[in-house]
Protein backbone atom coordinates (compact mmCIF):
# COMPACT_ATOMS: atom_id res chain seq x y z
CA UNK A 1 0.00 0.00 0.00
CA UNK A 2 1.24 3.47 -0.85
CA UNK A 3 1.70 5.13 2.55
CA UNK A 4 1.80 8.74 1.40
CA UNK A 5 -0.87 11.39 0.95
CA UNK A 6 -1.31 14.87 -0.46
CA UNK A 7 -3.85 17.01 1.40
CA UNK A 8 -5.77 19.72 -0.44
CA UNK A 9 -5.30 22.28 2.27
CA UNK A 10 -6.98 25.66 2.79
CA UNK A 11 -6.17 26.21 6.46
CA UNK A 12 -9.85 25.98 7.40
CA UNK A 13 -11.56 23.70 9.91
CA UNK A 14 -12.31 20.90 7.49
CA UNK A 15 -9.00 20.69 5.65
CA UNK A 16 -7.00 21.07 8.88
CA UNK A 17 -8.95 18.22 10.44
CA UNK A 18 -8.19 16.23 7.29
CA UNK A 19 -4.52 17.12 7.62
CA UNK A 20 -4.44 15.71 11.16
CA UNK A 21 -6.35 12.64 9.97
CA UNK A 22 -3.81 12.10 7.19
CA UNK A 23 -0.90 12.54 9.60
CA UNK A 24 -2.33 9.73 11.72
CA UNK A 25 -3.21 7.54 8.72
CA UNK A 26 -0.17 7.85 6.45
CA UNK A 27 3.58 7.71 6.96
CA UNK A 28 4.28 10.65 4.67
CA UNK A 29 2.03 13.69 4.26
CA UNK A 30 2.36 16.77 2.08
CA UNK A 31 -0.09 19.63 1.46
CA UNK A 32 -1.09 21.87 -1.42
CA UNK A 33 -2.96 25.18 -1.23
CA UNK A 34 -4.53 27.09 -4.12
CA UNK A 35 -4.41 30.85 -4.52
CA UNK A 36 -7.34 31.99 -6.66
CA UNK A 37 -7.41 35.54 -5.29
CA UNK A 38 -10.21 34.56 -2.93
CA UNK A 39 -11.66 37.32 -0.76
CA UNK A 40 -10.53 35.41 2.34
CA UNK A 41 -7.00 35.22 0.93
CA UNK A 42 -5.51 35.28 4.42
CA UNK A 43 -6.39 31.58 4.55
CA UNK A 44 -3.24 30.99 2.47
CA UNK A 45 -1.05 32.47 5.20
CA UNK A 46 -2.97 30.41 7.74
CA UNK A 47 -2.37 27.21 5.76
CA UNK A 48 1.31 28.04 5.36
CA UNK A 49 1.70 28.64 9.11
CA UNK A 50 -0.01 25.38 10.08
CA UNK A 51 2.03 23.34 7.60
CA UNK A 52 5.24 24.90 8.88
CA UNK A 53 4.30 24.28 12.50
CA UNK A 54 3.77 20.57 11.86
CA UNK A 55 6.70 20.18 9.43
CA UNK A 56 4.45 19.35 6.49
CA UNK A 57 5.98 19.99 3.04
CA UNK A 58 3.66 22.57 1.52
CA UNK A 59 3.24 24.29 -1.81
CA UNK A 60 0.96 27.10 -2.98
CA UNK A 61 -0.26 26.99 -6.58
CA UNK A 62 -1.35 30.08 -8.49
CA UNK A 63 -4.93 29.54 -9.69
CA UNK A 64 -5.76 33.17 -10.43
CA UNK A 65 -7.25 32.06 -13.75
CA UNK A 66 -10.18 30.62 -11.75
CA UNK A 67 -10.88 34.09 -10.37
CA UNK A 68 -11.01 35.43 -13.91
CA UNK A 69 -13.30 32.65 -15.15
CA UNK A 70 -15.75 32.35 -12.26
CA UNK A 71 -16.92 35.66 -10.77
CA UNK A 72 -18.81 35.02 -7.53
CA UNK A 73 -18.96 36.21 -3.93
CA UNK A 74 -15.69 34.47 -3.04
CA UNK A 75 -13.77 36.03 -5.90
CA UNK A 76 -15.46 39.45 -6.02
CA UNK A 77 -15.73 41.63 -2.93
CA UNK A 78 -18.51 43.69 -4.52
CA UNK A 79 -20.81 40.66 -4.65
CA UNK A 80 -22.91 39.87 -1.59
CA UNK A 81 -22.49 36.57 0.26
CA UNK A 82 -25.94 35.01 0.49
CA UNK A 83 -27.71 31.70 0.27
CA UNK A 84 -29.00 30.61 -3.11
CA UNK A 85 -32.53 30.71 -4.38
CA UNK A 86 -34.50 27.46 -4.22
CA UNK A 87 -32.51 24.69 -5.89
CA UNK A 88 -29.51 26.96 -6.48
CA UNK A 89 -26.14 26.99 -4.68
CA UNK A 90 -25.16 30.05 -2.62
CA UNK A 91 -23.31 32.97 -4.21
CA UNK A 92 -20.08 31.60 -2.71
CA UNK A 93 -20.10 28.59 -5.05
CA UNK A 94 -17.10 28.75 -7.39
CA UNK A 95 -17.80 26.85 -10.61
CA UNK A 96 -15.20 24.19 -11.25
CA UNK A 97 -13.19 24.84 -8.09
CA UNK A 98 -12.96 21.31 -6.72
CA UNK A 99 -12.68 19.87 -10.22
CA UNK A 100 -9.63 22.03 -10.90
CA UNK A 101 -8.13 21.78 -7.42
CA UNK A 102 -8.27 17.99 -7.36
CA UNK A 103 -7.03 17.72 -10.94
CA UNK A 104 -4.02 19.92 -10.23
CA UNK A 105 -3.45 18.13 -6.93
CA UNK A 106 -3.37 14.85 -8.85
CA UNK A 107 -0.66 16.20 -11.17
CA UNK A 108 1.40 17.23 -8.14
CA UNK A 109 0.78 13.89 -6.41
CA UNK A 110 1.87 11.83 -9.40
CA UNK A 111 5.09 13.82 -9.76
CA UNK A 112 5.84 13.09 -6.10
CA UNK A 113 4.91 9.42 -6.25
CA UNK A 114 1.87 9.97 -4.02
CA UNK A 115 -1.33 8.01 -4.65
CA UNK A 116 -3.68 9.27 -1.93
CA UNK A 117 -5.29 12.70 -2.31
CA UNK A 118 -7.15 13.88 0.79
CA UNK A 119 -9.91 16.47 0.58
CA UNK A 120 -12.39 17.80 3.14
CA UNK A 121 -15.48 17.81 0.93
CA UNK A 122 -18.68 16.73 2.64
CA UNK A 123 -22.13 15.80 1.35
CA UNK A 124 -23.80 16.10 4.78
CA UNK A 125 -23.06 19.81 5.36
CA UNK A 126 -22.18 20.75 1.79
CA UNK A 127 -24.04 24.07 1.53
CA UNK A 128 -25.52 23.03 -1.82
CA UNK A 129 -22.15 22.85 -3.60
CA UNK A 130 -22.48 20.17 -6.32
CA UNK A 131 -18.73 19.50 -6.38
CA UNK A 132 -18.78 18.33 -2.76
CA UNK A 133 -20.96 15.31 -3.54
CA UNK A 134 -19.69 11.75 -3.25
CA UNK A 135 -20.81 10.89 -6.77
CA UNK A 136 -18.64 13.71 -8.18
CA UNK A 137 -15.59 12.56 -6.20
CA UNK A 138 -16.01 8.94 -7.33
CA UNK A 139 -16.46 10.05 -10.95
CA UNK A 140 -13.41 12.30 -10.85
CA UNK A 141 -11.34 9.57 -9.20
CA UNK A 142 -12.02 7.28 -12.15
CA UNK A 143 -11.32 10.07 -14.64
CA UNK A 144 -7.99 11.00 -13.04
CA UNK A 145 -6.89 7.36 -12.98
CA UNK A 146 -7.69 7.02 -16.67
CA UNK A 147 -6.23 10.39 -17.65
CA UNK A 148 -2.87 9.76 -16.00
CA UNK A 149 -2.78 5.96 -15.99
CA UNK A 150 -2.13 6.10 -12.26
CA UNK A 151 -3.97 4.52 -9.34
CA UNK A 152 -5.10 7.56 -7.36
CA UNK A 153 -7.33 7.22 -4.32
CA UNK A 154 -9.29 10.34 -3.33
CA UNK A 155 -9.89 10.08 0.41
CA UNK A 156 -12.84 12.02 1.87
CA UNK A 157 -12.83 11.43 5.65
CA UNK A 158 -15.59 14.01 6.21
CA UNK A 159 -17.94 12.95 3.43
CA UNK A 160 -20.71 11.46 5.56
CA UNK A 161 -20.38 13.41 8.80
CA UNK A 162 -21.83 16.77 9.82
CA UNK A 163 -19.95 19.74 11.31
CA UNK A 164 -20.50 18.58 14.89
CA UNK A 165 -18.98 15.20 14.01
CA UNK A 166 -16.08 16.97 12.27
CA UNK A 167 -15.35 18.76 15.54
CA UNK A 168 -15.60 15.40 17.28
CA UNK A 169 -13.07 13.92 14.86
CA UNK A 170 -10.67 16.81 15.56
CA UNK A 171 -11.08 16.07 19.28
CA UNK A 172 -10.45 12.34 18.76
CA UNK A 173 -7.28 13.25 16.86
CA UNK A 174 -6.17 15.38 19.83
CA UNK A 175 -6.44 18.76 18.11
CA UNK A 176 -9.84 20.25 19.01
CA UNK A 177 -8.50 23.43 20.60
CA UNK A 178 -5.88 23.86 17.90
CA UNK A 179 -8.53 23.73 15.16
CA UNK A 180 -10.72 26.13 17.13
CA UNK A 181 -8.03 28.75 17.51
CA UNK A 182 -5.72 28.41 14.52
CA UNK A 183 -7.90 27.78 11.47
CA UNK A 184 -9.66 30.20 9.17
CA UNK A 185 -13.08 29.25 7.83
CA UNK A 186 -14.69 32.71 7.74
CA UNK A 187 -15.43 34.14 4.28
CA UNK A 188 -14.47 37.55 5.68
CA UNK A 189 -11.00 36.36 6.66
CA UNK A 190 -11.34 36.38 10.46
CA UNK A 191 -9.52 33.63 12.37
CA UNK A 192 -11.10 31.25 14.86
CA UNK A 193 -14.77 31.95 15.51
CA UNK A 194 -14.76 34.36 12.56
CA UNK A 195 -17.28 37.10 11.90
CA UNK A 196 -20.17 34.94 13.07
CA UNK A 197 -22.42 36.17 10.27
CA UNK A 198 -21.27 34.56 7.03
CA UNK A 199 -22.63 31.09 6.09
CA UNK A 200 -19.27 29.42 6.78
CA UNK A 201 -19.11 30.85 10.31
CA UNK A 202 -22.70 29.94 11.10
CA UNK A 203 -22.14 26.34 10.00
CA UNK A 204 -18.83 26.05 11.86
CA UNK A 205 -20.04 27.63 15.11
CA UNK A 206 -23.35 25.75 15.18
CA UNK A 207 -21.46 22.49 14.75
CA UNK A 208 -19.06 23.34 17.55
CA UNK A 209 -21.90 24.29 19.89
CA UNK A 210 -23.69 21.02 19.12
CA UNK A 211 -20.56 18.92 19.68
CA UNK A 212 -19.58 20.64 22.96
CA UNK A 213 -23.11 20.16 24.28
CA UNK A 214 -22.93 16.46 23.40
CA UNK A 215 -19.50 16.16 25.00
CA UNK A 216 -20.69 17.83 28.19
CA UNK A 217 -23.69 15.47 28.44
CA UNK A 218 -21.45 12.42 28.11
CA UNK A 219 -19.10 13.47 30.95
From TrEMBL:
Arranged from A to Z, the UniProt key words for this protein are:
ATP-binding, Ligase, Metal-binding, Nucleotide-binding, Queuosine biosynthesis, Zinc
Pathway the protein acts in:
Purine metabolism; 7-cyano-7-deazaguanine biosynthesis
Quote the record's cofactor note: Binds 1 zinc ion per subunit.
Under catalytic activity, the entry for this protein gives: 7-carboxy-7-carbaguanine + NH4(+) + 2 ATP = 7-cyano-7-carbaguanine + 2 AMP + 2 diphosphate + 2 H(+)
Q: What class of enzyme is it?
A: ligase
Q: Which residues bind ATP?
A: 9-19
Q: Which Pfam families match?
A: QueC
Record's keyword annotation contains Transmembrane: no
Cofactor field: Zn(2+)
Q: Which GO terms describe its biological process?
A: tRNA queuosine(34) biosynthetic process
Q: Which domain of life is it from?
A: Bacteria
Q: Which GO terms describe its molecular function?
A: ATP binding; ligase activity, forming carbon-nitrogen bonds; zinc ion binding
Give the EC number(s) listed in the UniProt record: 6.3.4.20
Summarizing the function annotation, the protein's role is: Catalyzes the ATP-dependent conversion of 7-carboxy-7-deazaguanine (CDG) to 7-cyano-7-deazaguanine (preQ(0)).
Q: Quote the HAMAP family the UniProt record gives.
A: QueC
Q: Which family does it belong to?
A: Belongs to the QueC family.
**Could you describe the subunit structure of this protein?**
Homodimer.
Q: What is this protein called?
A: 7-cyano-7-deazaguanine synthase
**Species the sequence originates in:** Desulfosporosinus meridiei (strain ATCC BAA-275 / DSM 13257 / KCTC 12902 / NCIMB 13706 / S10)
Amino acid sequence: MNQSALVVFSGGQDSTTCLFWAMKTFERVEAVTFNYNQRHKSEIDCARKIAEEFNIPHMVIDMSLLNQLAPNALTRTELEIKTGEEGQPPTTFVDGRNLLFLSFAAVVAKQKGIKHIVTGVCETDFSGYPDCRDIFIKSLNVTLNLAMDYSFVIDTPLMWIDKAETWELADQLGHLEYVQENTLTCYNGIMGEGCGDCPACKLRNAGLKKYLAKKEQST
